[in-house]
Amino acid sequence: MIEDGKWQAVDEGAPQGASVSPLIADVYLHYVLDRWARRWRSEQAHRDMIILRWADDFVAGLEHRDDAERSCTPTRPGSSSSGAMPLALVPPRGSENRRRSGFSSFTHMCWKTRAGRFWLRRVTEAKRMRAKLKDVKVEPKRRRHQPMPVQGLWLASVVRGHFAYYDVPGSSDAITAFGYQVARHWIKALRRRSQRTRLTWAPMTRYVRHWLPPARLQHPFPSVRFDANTRGRSPVR
Questions:
Q1: What pLDDT was estimated at residue 101?
Q2: What is the mean pLDDT of each run of 10 residues along the chain (237 residues)?
Q3: Within a 13 Å sphere around the CA of 143, how many CA atoms are in the beta-carbon half?
Q4: Do 141 and 213 sit in the same domain of this protein?
Q5: Is there a domain that residue 205 lies in?
Q6: Of 108, 218, 226, 234, which one has the greatest count of Cβ atoms within 10 A?
Q7: Number of folded domains in the chain?
Q8: Cα(39)–Cα(33) distance, rounded to whole angstroms?
Q9: Are 76 and 131 in a shared domain?
Q10: From the CA atom positions of the chain, what is the Rg in Å?
Q11: Helix pair 148-166, 126-143: axis angle to 10 deg
C-alpha cells in the first residue's frame, strides 16, 4: 500500500495496481450495476439509454432529461432492486453553463463542431495537469547533471504516458501546452547546471524534437476507431 508517497506492506486487501482489483469490481458490479441498468432500461426508461463501464467507473447516457433526473435519485434502504442509483447528473445539450467539473480526469463540455453539430468535448482537467507539471518541474532539477540521453528518455516516457491517456478529440490545445511546459521546465533545469550557461531555445528545440514525442491524436472518435473493413473471405465479414 502507498500512502503519501510511502510504501508499506499490509496483510489485508489487494495490492494497488494489481489485476485482481478490477476483476473483483467486474464480478461485484455485474450484479449491483449491470443487471440494474438492464432492468432499469427495459422497465423505467422512456427513451434510449446507454451505459459504459470500466471496472468501477461508468458513464450513463440517457436521451430524455426526465429519465436522467429519475436515475440520479438516491436509493433508500429497503427499496426494490429496480430503484434508482445515486448518480451525478451532467447537464445535457443546450445548457447555459457549458463547462462542468469533469470526471475520469477530464473536463466535459457541450460543444459544437465547425459544421454546427453537437459533440461532447473533453479536455484535460486543470487540477490534474497542474499536479503533473509540478512533479515534472522537480524531477528535471534532480536529473540535470545526468547525460542528455538519460534525461531525454525519462522525459519522453513521462510525456508519452500523458499523451496516451489524455490525447483525445478536443484536448489538442491542452496536450500541446503540456508538451511546451515540459520543455520549458527542462531548459530551466539545464540552465541551472552552470552560471555561465548560454543554452538558448534554438539548440533546445533540437533536443525537444529529438527526444520528446510530438502531440498526436491517440484516441480518435469511435467512428474512426471501429471503422473496420474486410475483403474477400474474411471470417469476420
A1: 44
A2: 76 74 85 85 81 80 77 50 53 46 65 76 80 86 90 91 84 87 91 84 90 83 63 55
A3: 18
A4: yes
A5: yes
A6: 108
A7: 2
A8: 10
A9: no
A10: 23
A11: 170
